[in-house]
Design a protein that fits this description.
409 residues, Fumarate Reductase Iron-sulfur Protein, Chain B, domain 2, 54% helix, globular, binds iron/sulfur cluster
């Protein structure tokens, strides 16, 4: 695609990056078939190709309207289009740049801006979030059913093994996961402990930065990422082998640290190292297959079939399609066939709140697909997908590492 970026952006790092991405797009339209919003709405401007065209116009200096912003807001950043694209268009990077430019030209109204700030505050408030969740759980039975579905039940973490192995890894705590599902990281610690690796939680670390970054508070997100790196760095210097991420959405963000801070004179090298050492828990377990097979030797297959939902962040962001399914099969689970497994569940960070109607339609389609094989349970790799699917499913939903933990217990 030919481009002619406006003078105010063409010589900036973002302008050069966006220009290189835009030039790769040949407008073939292959990506339309796998775009969830195009499939729902049937509007070219709600497809990857249409959004690329809108961003090109904005970057070339054409007038930008609120309609442009709406079409970009409706994008889930699921990156299914990246997986499908034969030309290697990095849509995810482009839409981050495009949204920032469009938001500068079309300031959000007071209510929209305030709601986005409130979301950032709520998700990042740590103890306050936990307190609010506790109150919600306390009065869950009194809430209208639609609201009660949004308050997940309490999950017991279980014991976290003492650090007894020479091999150590650190774990990303995340922003809301410790309050909503402390069982996920604890189960990871138990599984890795059996595999000869001690998992260490770093109390000073927290949110990966994705909430702020994708709500267009990119400066605040980069500051948070620098603090995250500062918290992890002493552990990496002391020999921690990897940073284990149990939410694939956060994993995609940590994998981007090196790119996002590439021009930071103080943090560029450290950020690149952190990204290099970040691993989804599926990658960590897959690398220990031999030890896992020994632990599983002699166990009969699991009788009840389960359905696995592969989050977009795992399959399209981290490009780890099939990794968890193969571990679960090797561990004796039978996985049901899930139609349209590439499709987004509609969670997508704060998307389920900001675009609740579209998100609800995607959720209904996803639950139908996941339950079509009559599984006894559903599992996934990302806290956002887990809670979103749980709000619509009729079967228990959990992180797959919990199933493996139970299997090894
Ligand atoms: S598939 Fe790739 S090259 Fe083709 S229109 Fe979509 S983004 Fe552009
Ligand atoms: S990221 Fe997902 S929703 Fe956005 S354009 Fe690509 S496929 Fe469509």
């Amino acid at each position: 695609m030919q481009t002619n970026l406006a003078d105010w952006i063409k010589d900036t790092p973002e302008g050069r990056e966006a220009d290189a991405i835009l030039r790769k797009c040949v407008h073939c339209g292959f990506c339309l078939a796998t775009c969830p919003t195009y499939n729902l709405l049937g509007d070219e401007l709600d497809s990857p190709r249409g959004r690329i065209y809108l961003m090109k116009q904005a970057l070339e200096g054409a007038p930008v309207t609120a309609r442009t912003q709406v079409h970009l807001d409706r994008c889930l950043t699921c990156r299914a289009c990246e997986t499908t694209c034969p030309s290697g268009v990095q849509y995810g990077r482009l839409v981050d740049i495009g949204r920032e430019v469009v938001d500068r030209k079309v300031p959000r109204g007071f209510a929209d801006g305030a709601f986005r700030r409130l979301l950032r505050f709520a998700f990042l408030s740590g103890p306050l979030f936990a307190f609010g969740l506790g109150i919600g759980r306390l009065f869950r039975s009194l809430l209208p059913s639609a609201l009660a579905k949004q308050v997940p039940p309490k999950r017991e973490a279980g014991a976290w093994p003492a650090a007894r192995h020479a091999r150590r890894m650190i774990v990303l705590d995340g922003c809301v996961q410790p309050a909503l599902a402390p069982d996920i990281n604890a189960a990871t610690a138990r599984v890795l402990d059996r595999l000869g690796i001690s998992l260490v939680s770093v109390p000073q670390s927290g949110c990966c930065g994705a909430i702020e970054y994708h709500l267009n508070a990119q400066g605040a997100a980069l500051d948070r990422i620098r603090r995250q790196i500062d918290a992890w760095w002493p552990h990496l210097e002391a020999g921690a082998e990897a940073i284990v991420v149990t939410a694939s959405g956060c994993g995609t963000m940590v994998a981007e640290y090196g790119h996002l801070l590439a021009r930071d004179p103080v943090y560029a090298q450290k950020a690149a190292r952190v990204s290099e050492l970040a691993r989804d828990v599926g990658q960590v377990v897959a690398a220990e297959r031999e030890a896992l097979a020994k632990l599983l030797a002699g166990k009969p297959p699991v009788a009840e079939p389960v359905a696995y939902h592969a989050p977009c962040s795992l399959q399209h962001g981290l490009k780890q399609k099939g990794i968890v399914e193969s571990i679960l099969r090797e561990a004796g689970f039978t996985l049901t066939l899930v139609p349209d497994a590439h499709a987004c569940c509609g969670s997508a960070g704060t998307y389920s709140i900001l675009q609740s109607e579209l998100s609800g339609q995607l959720l209904a389609n996803k639950v139908k697909a996941l339950e079509s094989g009559s599984p006894s349970a559903i599992c996934t790799s990302n806290i956002g997908c887990l809670l979103h699917i749980e709000s619509g499913a009729s079967r228990p939903v959990s992180h797959w590492i919990g199933l493996l933990d139970d299997r090894l217990a």
